[in-house]
Amino acid sequence: MTKFTRLQIQLHWLTLVLIAVTYAAMELRGWFPKSSAAYLFMRETHYNAGIVVWLLMFLRLWLRHRYPEPDIVPPPPRWQMKAGRVMHIVLYITFLALPLLGIALMAFNGKSWIFLGLTISPFATPDPLVKSVLKNIHETLGNAGYFFIAFHAAAALLHHYVQKDNTLCRMLPDHNKPI
């Protein structure tokens, strides 16, 4: 096998798009007054896209264990293989933890929120101190996510353009096949 499965490739790029939407909604909501419809839309988009990313990460993990990883040709040095494994673990942990932290943050904030049109009531006793700690962790990990994504993309480009191996090509869709 020279590439990841078609489903793995599609979910990889869908996850990237939804992470971008999540980050963009978070950044753009600051442009609007807090109670405006645009602010609320951005806030709900951030929540919903984040939770969908969380669900996709579980599906991707399952697929990752179900199908063998295609070989990198020519094989990179052993230290790069280990570094790549560590980076993938960091990415999975980050994008599994961020939505959970966000949900906990909402619960300890004591406010209901909307997930895909359903109102989710707080399920924990409001606690400003816990909320503050969760918010700091969520924001710090979210900011670190920018760097993790950038490093992941830079490594893929380095493999493609400098090392000239198939690392990036394994995750690119076949343009000759219909979707």
Q: Number of folding domains? A: 1
Note poorly predicted spans: none
Assign an overall shape: elongated
CATH architecture classification: Up-down Bundle
Overall pLDDT score = 93
Commentary on this structure:
This protein has 179 residues and is mostly helical. The protein has a single domain, classed as Fumarate Reductase Cytochrome B subunit. It contains four helices and two strands. The model has no long low-confidence stretch (mean pLDDT 93).
Secondary-structure map with pairings?
Elements: H1 6-29, H2 37-66, H3 78-109, E1 113-115, E2 118-120, H4 128-163
Antiparallel strand pairs: 1-2
Short note summarizing the structure:
With 179 residues, the chain is mainly alpha-helical. The chain has four helices and two strands. A two-stranded antiparallel ribbon has the order 1-2.
Key structural traits:
single chain; 68% helix; 179 residues; mainly alpha; Fumarate Reductase Cytochrome B subunit
